[in-house]
Design goal:
There is one protein chain. The protein is of the alpha/beta class. The protein has a single domain, classed as Rossmann fold (3-Layer(aba) Sandwich). Helix content is 37%, strand content 15%. Strands 2-3-1-4-5 form a 5-stranded parallel sheet, sandwiched between helices. α5 packs across α6. The longest helix has 21 residues. It is globular. It starts with a strand and ends in a 10-residue tail after the last helix.
Length: 190
């Protein structure tokens, strides 16, 4: 890959990964997306997904075309990234109650049951999962990570945009990135 790194936007579902992808796009970064999953009521600005990411355990050929681009990947899949590439991981964190409320609302809209497991159990599982993922990232010599708090990003976008741009080598346009942050879409405040 000639020294190019792949930018991975990761986190738990409903943690702000789509917002971050939109910010990177506005800042001038090329995204690896396929447009299969279209905007809806849960993500009116879009999901910015690339379906092949879900098959990373068995399909890694697409990584060859991902250099200097950003791609979104849930935290669970990070462990399947091959060590032959360098990664800059922007990992989104969000208040756990808000993540759970957002997921519940999405399930309700889709007509899926929401009472299979309690919020307390899910929160515990998610917290343990995050601890393992973050410890694993810290051990990877080919990964650098920047942890971005969604709640803080919405409150102080300019400060976070500056940190994100520095993390990615100062190549992005900060003004357009900051303008992507839309507090009206912050619907699950806790």
């Amino acid at each position: 890959m000639n020294g190019k790194s792949i930018t991975i936007v990761s986190g738990l579902p409903r943690s702000g990964t789509s917002l971050m992808m939109g910010m990177l796009k506005a800042g001038g970064m090329e995204l690896l997306v396929d447009g299969i999953r279209t905007p809806d009521e849960d993500n009116p600005k879009g999901y910015y997904e690339f379906e092949r990411v879900k098959q990373i355990e068995h399909d890694q050929d697409w990584l060859e075309d991902a250099g200097d681009k950003a791609v979104k990947m849930i935290a669970e899949l990070l462990r399947h990234l091959p060590p032959s590439y360098n990664y800059k991981v922007i990992f989104m964190r969000r208040n756990m109650e808000e993540i759970l409320a957002s997921q519940r609302q999405m399930m309700i809209r889709r007509g899926e049951p929401t009472d299979r497991i309690s919020d307390e159990e899910i929160a515990g599982l998610f917290r343990r999962h995050l601890e393992k993922v973050e410890a694993w990232i810290a051990e990877q010599p080919n990964m650098e990570a920047l942890y971005v708090n969604y709640n803080s990003l919405l409150a102080e976008p300019a400060q976070h945009v500056k940190e994100i741009n520095e993390f990615l080598g100062g190549i992005l346009h900060e003004g357009p990135m900051t303008r992507v942050v839309d507090p009206s879409l912050y619907r699950q405040r806790r």
